[in-house]
Amino acid sequence: MKKTLMALGAMAMLGSTAQAQKVAFEEFDLDNGLHVVLHQDNSAPVIITSVMYHVGAKDEQPNRTGFAHFFEHLLFEGTKNIERGEWFKIVTANGGNNNANTSDDRTYYYEVFPSNNLELAIWMESERLMHPVINQIGVDTQNEVVKEEKRLRKDNQPYGNIFKAIKQNLFKNHPYRWEPIGEMEHLDAATLEEFQAFNKKFYVPNNAVLVVAGQFETAQAKEWIKKYFGAIPKGAPVQRQKFEEAPITTTINATWEDPNVQIPMTLAAYRTPSMKTKDARVLDMISTYLSDGKSSKLYKKMVDDKKVALQVGAFNNSQEDYGQYIIYSLPLGDVSSENLLKEIDEEIVNIQNNLISENDFQKLQNKFENNYVNSNASVEGIAENLASYYLLYGDINLVNTEIEIYRSITREDIREVAKKYLNPNQRLVLKYGPAKEKTAK
């Protein structure tokens, strides 16, 4: 009884913290279709200016993969009013830092400056959109940069091509079948005109959201946003093709050889629904239940108790159209892939047939309350959340309300979602291991 009261008390405390952290924001549209979101936070003299474009790897052509990620690099090359090589110098000289990242679904750029540099930050992001310089020297330079990144992060990194192996087996029609890094021969074959056309199609104000967060004066921020972004012409509406995958009804068996690894990895991957669905959030909870921390079910069973695995983990890779639910394990000694799968499947079947304990469910609720608080604990985190919820989820208010979806999940939901998606005939089984030695003739 005492433990129950303590747990309830912890929940109440987390709930009140989450409630106290409600994110206030203001949003409006410019005439050119740019959506603008303002979030004031006067706790520190810092400003974050970010732009998220609704373009990612899934918007590429099968013979021109890697374009979205390439632009993440290319659009730091320079603009009509920022000379080549000067972008990072300007940011650093004014006490700031900046970065960008690309996913299958979107590309995100941001600057963090002392709050007295808000006008500079807004101007620089408007320059990236209005006056990018896309020429052959920039393309050639960044082509080499991307190739080196691929060598370091993928080709020469142990287990670096796991997602490539998973995606090309789980997806046959959808562009999720390739990775954002793309294929280098596609970038090599692309013409300058193709890069310019990609920019013209996707880098338009009506395909983006601008977020300004931190310490600023609202009227002044609006004035500068309209001054620098308002004159940018509206682009043609982006037409997106819808891709659908046939259900997986029989286990897909695949192998992948990686010369950088010595210990084989066994993976089970399931195609799952859009991150916008409640089921995707339930799968988040299932992955936490199975493998978040050393007390989780799979880790305790396979690593601590039975000592059949060096490592085991489960995670839900949610995306805009589909997701991938992945469970992986590294064997201890000569334990076979089949034995690892057997141990994993026993835990999944247990979830499918039985309600998880009240105590385990309470732990899950506590963790997700804590995750919610942490996700909105920094101005940078809030800025990206506001952009993502508006652009990808179509509901910016999720920045404050998504936790209610997690709170609504029941033990019965966990059981039913596990039954719905995590079945052997609905998955890919991937044996990812060392390259086999070739027998001399």
Give a concise summary.
Residues 36-175 form the Peptidase M16 N-terminal domain. The chain is of the alpha+beta class.
The parts where pLDDT drops under 50 for at least 5 residues are 1-20
Q: What would you call the structural class? A: alpha+beta
Terminal Cα span: 72 Å
Rg, please?
24 Å
Keywords: Hydrolase, Metalloprotease, Protease, Signal, Zinc
Domain Peptidase M16 N-terminal: 36-175
InterPro entries: Metalloenz_LuxS/M16 (IPR011249), Pept_M16_N (IPR011765), Peptidase_M16 (IPR050626), Peptidase_M16_C (IPR007863)
Pfam family, one: Peptidase_M16_C
Topology:
Blueprint: H1 2-20, E1 26-29, E2 35-40, E3 46-53, H2 67-74, H3 87-93, E4 97-102, E5 107-114, H4 118-130, H5 136-155, H6 162-170, H7 184-189, H8 192-202, E6 208-214, H9 218-229, E7 252-258, E8 265-273, H10 278-291, H11 297-305, E9 309-317, E10 322-331, H12 337-353, H13 358-375, H14 379-393, H15 398-408, H16 411-421, E11 427-434
Parallel strand pairs: 2-6, 7-11
Antiparallel strand pairs: 1-2, 3-5, 3-6, 4-5, 8-10, 8-11, 9-10
Helix pairs in contact: 1-13, 4-9, 10-16, 11-12, 12-16
Domain Peptidase M16 N-terminal: 36-175
Keywords: Hydrolase, Metalloprotease, Protease, Signal, Zinc
GO molecular function: metal ion binding; metallopeptidase activity
